Amino acid sequence: MLAVATGAVLLAMGLALVRAWAGPTVFDRILALNAFGTKTVLLIAVIGFLSGRPDFLDLALVYALMNFIGVIAVLRFSKYGHFGDHDEGETI
Amino acid sequence: MKHTVGLILVLGGIWVLWSWHFTPLLLAFGVLSCACVLLIALRMRIVDEEGAPIHLPLRLFRYLPWLFWEIAKANIDVAVRILRPRLSISPRVIEVLASQRTDVGYVIYANSITLTPGTVSIHTEGDMISVHALTREAADGVLNGEMGRHVSRLESAK
Amino acid sequence: MGPIVGDLIVVAGSIFIVIGGIGLIRFPDFFTRMHAGGVTDTFGAGLVLTGLAIQAGMSLITVKLLLILLFLWLTSPTATHALANSALEAGLKPKLDRQEEAPSS
């Protein structure tokens, strides 16, 4: 059963990649990236159970952290053209 | 002060739960990490009612079940609309008034709207939140203000 | 009993993840696609991680699964709002349904 779930998550990751490839705007691509990252977290968790190694969960958490920080960083960059070193008081 | 203590307890608890090793070396790493995070947070001056809302968790137990139920209903609705051969969506943008007193309440309200599929808060200005809704029903669900009342109750129960 | 129920919930969650993916492809513009992403982020992640937690039973693993879920549910609306707000400020206009403006049905 968990193998079915793994396949389904992989399929959904493929769909997200199609959207990232098709665009058309940069925001569609970031949205697809974000969805892809969430699915990666879930994929790692499911595979960890499938292979009987639940310590994979630590990796899943790291992916969740990186995904969030990554999306915010890419957004900042696509909005301001830099990572916001010099502008004070600006919020995303 | 109580916010600092609360933050230390939460950070320490999270370290212990994720590590679950009790060798002196790893515990020392934990203390060091928590100290670093605490110092940065203090330097950023975010250790207050907003950055460390230690008064919320107990009240959240009343709010979250209701929110989960709303999310479940909205999810099934959106999923059905995705699967229908003919897309039955009518996207619209609406404005709702957030009557919450505190910033924390405001953020919880806006994030609850976003967390519920079918509605996403896309812009905030003053007390008004612009919401992009996927359907008329989703828009009406926000406009009837039930979620706003629940969040207000969450923040006002002293 | 427990493991099978957990399995079923995980599979149900993965179905919602695929539905979210389909929505990501089918919906007509960026703002509607965000709602499809929301299905994956809330119900997909929620069901998969809850199902795994049921399988794991009462243990440290369950706590970790629920912490990951809590983290995803805290960050996903923040990321979605930041994304939508950036798109709006970049001048992207949501496609709106004009016919539905008039009172009907």
In brief:
The complex is a heterotrimer of chains A (92), B (158) and C (105). By secondary structure, chain B is of the alpha+beta class.
Give me some keywords for this one.
heterotrimer; A: 92 residues; mainly alpha; 3 helices; flat; B: 158 residues; alpha+beta; three-stranded antiparallel sheet; 6 helices; 3 strands; 12% strand; elongated
Assembly category: heterotrimer
Residue share in β-strands of chain C: under 5%
Stretches with pLDDT under 50, minimum 5 residues of chain B = none
Low-confidence stretches of chain C: 99-105
Strand content of chain B: 5-15%
* Order of strands across the main sheet of chain B: 1-3-2
What shape does the CA trace of chain B take? elongated
Rounded average pLDDT of chain C? 84
- The beta-strand count of chain B equals 3
Number of domains of chain C: 1
Please specify the SSE layout and strand pairing:
The complex is a heterotrimer of chains A (92), B (158) and C (105).
Chain A: H1 2-22, H2 26-50, H3 56-80
Helix pairs in contact in A: 1-2, 2-3
Chain B: H1 2-19, H2 24-43, H3 57-83, E1 92-97, H4 103-115, E2 119-125, E3 128-133, H5 136-143, H6 146-156
Antiparallel strand pairs in B: 1-3, 2-3
Helix pairs in contact in B: 1-2, 3-6, 4-6
Chain C: H1 2-26, H2 30-56, H3 60-89
Question: Could you characterize the architecture of this molecule?
Answer:
- The complex is a heterotrimer of chains A (92), B (158) and C (105).
- With 92 residues, chain A is mainly alpha-helical.
- Chain A has helices spanning 2-22, 26-50, 56-80.
- The model of chain A has no long low-confidence stretch (mean pLDDT 84).
- With 158 residues, chain B is an alpha+beta fold.
- Chain B folds into two domains: 2-43; 57-156, no CATH class.
- Chain B has a three-stranded antiparallel sheet.
- Chain B starts with a helix and ends with a helix.
- Chain C has one domain (2-89).
- In chain C, helix 1 packs antiparallel against helix 2 (30-56) and helix 2 packs antiparallel against helix 3 (60-89).
- Chains in contact: A-C, B-C.
- Chains A and C meet through helix 1, helix 2 and helix 3 of A and helix 1, helix 2 and helix 3 of C.
